[in-house]
Amino acid sequence: MKVLTLNFLTCAVKACKSSSDSFPLHPKDCELVSDELEVNSALLTNVLTRVDWKALTTTAAELGFPTLPATPPTPEELAGDEKMLKELHTLLMETQINEGKLVCGHCGHEYAVKEGIANFLLPNHLV
Ligand SMILES: [Zn+2]
């Protein structure tokens, strides 16, 4: 699963839906893999308009990526900053979580990621 996916996932436990601690889920013991893809700045710019930047900043830090700026770069800034473009491309487009866990910051439930697929099925007592 792409790192970007973490920006759209929240804990599936009902009691966590209303908690801001359940987003983003926190990667733990993750094995990352990287696909080399050509930089597509138009696509990246488009993706950046949809992401929750604060959550992305958290995810990037937890995965050990270079610290992101406090606010997302504007399309103009991105076009003029080769280094930022490459870093965001690597983080959002190329990097995938292959194995590991995604942990909810509210209930502590750990979702397993195996062979790039996160398992969001909950045990019966949590549904
Ligand atoms: Zn939860």
Automatic annotation (TrEMBL):
<dbReference type="GO" id="GO:0070476">
    <property type="term" value="P:rRNA (guanine-N7)-methylation"/>
</dbReference>
<keyword id="KW-0539">Nucleus</keyword>
<dbReference type="GO" id="GO:0046982">
    <property type="term" value="F:protein heterodimerization activity"/>
</dbReference>
<dbReference type="Pfam" id="PF03966">
    <property type="entry name" value="Trm112p"/>
</dbReference>
<dbReference type="GO" id="GO:0005737">
    <property type="term" value="C:cytoplasm"/>
</dbReference>
<dbReference type="InterPro" id="IPR039127">
    <property type="entry name" value="Trm112"/>
</dbReference>
<dbReference type="GO" id="GO:0030488">
    <property type="term" value="P:tRNA methylation"/>
</dbReference>
<keyword id="KW-0963">Cytoplasm</keyword>
<protein>
    <recommendedName>
        <fullName>Multifunctional methyltransferase subunit trm112</fullName>
    </recommendedName>
</protein>
<comment type="similarity">
    <text>Belongs to the TRM112 family.</text>
</comment>
<dbReference type="GO" id="GO:0005634">
    <property type="term" value="C:nucleus"/>
</dbReference>
<dbReference type="InterPro" id="IPR005651">
    <property type="entry name" value="Trm112-like"/>
</dbReference>
